[in-house]
């Protein structure tokens, strides 16, 4: 007989399915536990009404409660459209292996509703598919619906068509906006309900977020902003998801919505009610990158410090933003100027490799925190002073359960403190974790995890690719080109008086907008062309010749020679990702807003701004869809490939083999777009270099991190390598299409693959033994070397037990060195996939120096 299913919203207090030992650890706050809701599925089976319940998520002042149990949760952001469905399983698996129990993602409105009422939940945008991958892995989900998401995503996730709804004003008390926001939010919630994805229905979603950091900017919207925020809260609550709602960076989030913290540190944050748990929705693991910016790097010792401080001081939910950053494919990057790579220096790199030692050190941290969970869920911690810059926090029931965190917040000096009669050494800016209040199992500044030789896990060139059976061959002989026409095309251009704002004109259908005009002259003359632009970038052509380019906004000046007669002026203005953050960000304009010709001799000026200009949205190549394999006859085969010429489309084929992640090295190109087999890889702009200064060869983890600290890649292209997902490649010929705006040499393009070539470890005698292998190491510090599933350790570039110096890739011996260091590690490791090296005199069968703290440093080659 058919099941009759009906859903109803009930607000009931459920019996806790208490774990043994739970009862009796009650505290005052728990008594005020708020049960947010429970969705019950009532099924009539064979005439008997059976109540099929999903789980229950609620919260109190200490933690989220899942099925009545307070939980310590560790979460990581993975944004589904920033990788491919073929990558999702591996990414989520690595997140789970790294010790996470929650995956956080935004929902990207403009990806799902490219045209009003036309939806796309396919491929990379298969939200349900992604959540099911997380469910399969038995992890929870924090679904950040927004629908404003920021996220360095085009227009902060809003569809650009929203801007054209009459009378609309975004993120304020505006009826047309609220109607659209409610419609999309409800659609997402309904979709989740239909797929039974809320925890209350047996699914993985334990939390949902409405809006995003509105509290950062709401003052700009005045009273209407406050009204909007309350409306958003009520609207969300009215959707009856059965799980708690959160608002991040919203100090006045109305009950029962939980306000959460975003930032590099959140240990000092307190929610706006003692009935709400202390939650951290964005712990930035690095930072995003801009074209023209340096490459950000956040040391893992500092991330671990921030996380340990948070749990030390009462936090119970923490999320890494990002755990996997991935790629801004196509035109999805926000901006302006966000790079195509959204690597973020996250624990999983752009291509899905573990970014070591970040991933491994955080995994060890998570194991330590999880050992403390029985104590952490008891009640708020008690502080103990340990020194002027040192403090500890204890979680205990006063009997058999006790966990402690000991912190040294001094940015310079190590400290030795006494805690419960025992002495503990605390490196500067570090936290030690003692799950039994006695033994240190982890210190945030002592990294046991191995590191990779190169930050991108080893990127090598063609010759070495062969050895990994990753063979990429560009068929250099066969290039085809298409010359993009300059300026307007009669069939699709239009004329308007004055200079039009770009986004209102293109509706973001394309990055490109041509502004064309002609200037009549009596005689030849030298002029300066002064162009004011709101950005984001501009190329100037006069009489079909490329004159120069500019990026960013402001006034730009170009010298030019005008001929007697008619002169053709074609200005190509382009957006590089629409603004995604700030008050009224949706109204920020782009494009040219003033054009003046200044006579070089007389200094007299002629303003062209209010003339009738001819406009052309987009490129001919875009209209022809040259990036598709559609048998387009517009292509011309060439023997000599034109190079360093502007406005050319290039096409060639290549073959691919192997399994490692593929990168396209476009260092030889200028600026444009690139496609592989019709898939949009994104914007490239290798010509845009990061500043010469501001990078540091050494990076001190001690002291508060900020996004420019420890940056790298100065003076080099901000992004020269572009991710080509494996699943976009096929056997046989693959098609590569590039559009180059300024000029480059496509014959110099390279394919690279990314894999680990060597791994390093450096572990001191003072380190805590590895949590995952205490038995094997017999409670002694240990270095572990792992080359991954299909490689073995083929040799050592360096091995020294003693006082080695330097970092991975540049280790050197110190004054103390055990002569048999290499022999011992070779015996333990050669020919193996992975091996463990104990940092002790026993293991090395000698003591190379007495009364000195020794460490082991190794660099192993993986083949
Ligand atoms: C936050 C925002 C995120 C992201 C982050 C920086 O303010 O909530 O969406 O933009 O900054 O990466």
Task: List the SSEs and their pairings.
Blueprint: E1 4-10, E2 38-45, E3 48-53, E4 57-59, E5 64-66, E6 69-71, E7 73-78, H1 85-97, E8 102-106, H2 109-112, H3 127-136, E9 140-146, H4 175-194, E10 205-210, H5 222-237, E11 245-248, E12 258-263, E13 278-284, H6 300-312, E14 315-324, H7 358-376, E15 382-387, E16 390-396, E17 402-408, E18 415-419, E19 422-426, E20 430-434, E21 442-443, E22 451-452, E23 459-460, H8 462-467, E24 472-474, E25 479-483, E26 494-497, H9 502-506, E27 512-521, E28 525-533, E29 537-542, E30 545-551, E31 554-562, E32 565-574, E33 592-599, E34 605-607, E35 612-617, H10 620-623, E36 636-638, E37 648-656, E38 662-665, E39 672-676, E40 679-684, E41 721-724, E42 734-740, E43 750-754, E44 758-764, H11 774-777, E45 782-786, E46 793-802, H12 821-829, E47 834-838, H13 841-844, E48 855-862
The structure holds beta-D-galactopyranose (GAL).
Beta-D-galactopyranose binds near residues 151 and 288.
Enzyme class: hydrolase
Organism: Adiantum capillus-veneris (Maidenhair fern)
Catalytic activity: Hydrolysis of terminal non-reducing beta-D-galactose residues in beta-D-galactosides
């Amino acid at each position: 007989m058919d099941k009759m299913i009906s859903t109803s919203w009930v607000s009931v207090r459920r019996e806790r399915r208490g774990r043994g030992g739970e009862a009796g650890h009650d505290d005052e706050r728990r008594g005020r536990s708020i049960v947010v809701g429970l969705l019950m599925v009532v099924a009539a089976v064979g005439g008997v009404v059976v109540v099929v319940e999903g789980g229950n998520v609620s919260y109190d002042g200490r933690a989220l409660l899942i099925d009545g149990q307070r939980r310590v949760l560790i979460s990581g952001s993975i944004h589904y459209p920033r990788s491919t469905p073929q990558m999702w399983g591996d990414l989520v698996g690595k997140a789970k292996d790294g010790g996470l129990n929650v995956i956080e993602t935004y929902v990207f409105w403009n990806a799902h509703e490219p045209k009003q009422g036309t939806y796309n939940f396919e491929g990379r945008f298969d939200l349900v598919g992604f959540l099911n991958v997380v469910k399969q892995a038995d992890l929870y989900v924090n679904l950040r619906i927004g629908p404003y998401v920021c996220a360095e995503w085009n227009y902060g996730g809003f569809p650009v068509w929203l801007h054209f709804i009459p009378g609309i004003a975004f993120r304020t008390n505006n009826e047309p906006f609220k109607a659209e926001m409610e419609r999309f939010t409800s659609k997402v919630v309904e979709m989740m309900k239909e797929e039974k994805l809320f925890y209350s229905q047996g699914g993985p979603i334990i939390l949902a977020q409405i809006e995003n950091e509105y509290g950062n900017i709401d003052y700009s919207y005045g009273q209407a902003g406050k009204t909007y925020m309350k409306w958003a809260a009520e609207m969300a609550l009215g959707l009856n998801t059965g799980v708690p709602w959160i608002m991040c960076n919203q100090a006045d989030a109305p009950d029962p919505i939980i306000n959460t913290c975003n930032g590099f540190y959140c240990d000092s944050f307190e929610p706006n009610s003692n009935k709400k748990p202390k939650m951290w929705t964005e712990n930035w693991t690095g930072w995003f990158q801009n074209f023209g910016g340096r490459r950000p790097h956040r040391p893992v010792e500092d991330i671990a410090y921030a996380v340990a401080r948070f749990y030390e001081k009462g936090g119970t939910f923490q999320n890494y933003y990002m755990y996997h950053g991935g790629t801004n494919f196509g035109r999805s990057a926000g901006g302006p100027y966000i790079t195509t790579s959204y690597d973020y220096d996250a624990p999983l790199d752009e291509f899905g490799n573990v970014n070591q030692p970040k991933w491994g050190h955080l995994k060890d941290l998570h194991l330590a925190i999880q050992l403390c969970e029985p104590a952490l869920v008891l009640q708020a911690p008690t502080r103990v002073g340990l020194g002027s810059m040192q403090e500890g926090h204890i979680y205990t029931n006063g009997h058999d359960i006790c966990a402690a965190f000991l912190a040294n917040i001094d940015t310079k000096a190590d400290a030795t403190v006494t805690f419960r009669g025992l002495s503990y050494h605390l490196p500067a800016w570090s936290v030690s974790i003692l799950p039994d209040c006695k033994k240190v199992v982890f210190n945030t500044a002592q990294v046991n995890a191995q590191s990779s030789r190169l930050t991108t896990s080893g990127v090598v060139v063609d010759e070495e690719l062969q050895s990994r059976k990753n063979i990429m061959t560009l068929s250099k002989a066969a290039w085809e080109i298409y010359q993009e026409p300059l300026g307007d095309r009669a069939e699709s251009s239009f004329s308007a008086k004055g200079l039009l704002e770009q986004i209102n004109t293109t509706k973001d259908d394309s990055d490109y907008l041509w502004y064309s005009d002609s200037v009549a002259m009596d005689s030849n003359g030298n002029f300066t062309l002064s162009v004011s632009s709101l950005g984001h970038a501009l190329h100037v052509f006069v009489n079909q010749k490329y004159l120069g380019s500019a990026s960013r906004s402001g006034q730009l000046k170009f010298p030019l020679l005008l001929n007697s007669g008619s002169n053709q002026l074609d200005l190509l203005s382009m957006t590089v990702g629409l603004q995604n953050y700030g008050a009224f960000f949706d109204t920020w304009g782009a494009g040219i807003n003033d054009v003046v010709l200044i006579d070089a001799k007389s200094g007299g000026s002629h303003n062209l701004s209010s003339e009738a200009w001819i406009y052309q949205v987009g490129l001919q190549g875009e209209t022809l869809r040259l990036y598709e394999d559609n048998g387009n006859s517009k292509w011309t085969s060439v023997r000599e490939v034109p190079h360093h010429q502007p406005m050319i489309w290039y096409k060639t084929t290549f073959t691919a083999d192997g399994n490692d992640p593929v990168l396209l090295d476009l260092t030889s190109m200028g600026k444009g777009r690139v496609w592989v087999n019709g898939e949009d890889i994104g914007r490239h702009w290798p010509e845009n270099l990061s500043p010469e200064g501001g990078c540091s060869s050494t990076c001190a983890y001690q002291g508060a991190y900020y996004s420019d600290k420890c940056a790298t890649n100065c003076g080099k292209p901000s992004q020269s390598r572009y991710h080509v997902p494996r699943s976009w490649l096929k056997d046989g010929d693959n098609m590569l299409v590039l559009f180059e705006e300024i000029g480059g040499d496509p014959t110099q393009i390279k394919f690279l693959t990314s894999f680990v070539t060597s791994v390093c470890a450096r572990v001191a005698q003072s380190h805590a033994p590895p949590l995952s292998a205490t038995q094997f190491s017999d409670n002694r510090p240990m270095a572990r070397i792992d080359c991954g599933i299909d490689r073995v350790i083929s040799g050592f570039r360096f091995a020294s037990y003693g006082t080695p110096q330097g970092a991975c890739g540049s280790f050197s011996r110190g004054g103390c060195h055990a002569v048999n260091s290499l022999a011992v590690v070779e015996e333990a490791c050669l020919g193996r996939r992975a091996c463990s090296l104990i940092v002790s005199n026993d293991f090395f069968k000698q003591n190379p120096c007495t009364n000195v703290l020794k460490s082991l440093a190794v660099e192993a080659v993986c083949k």
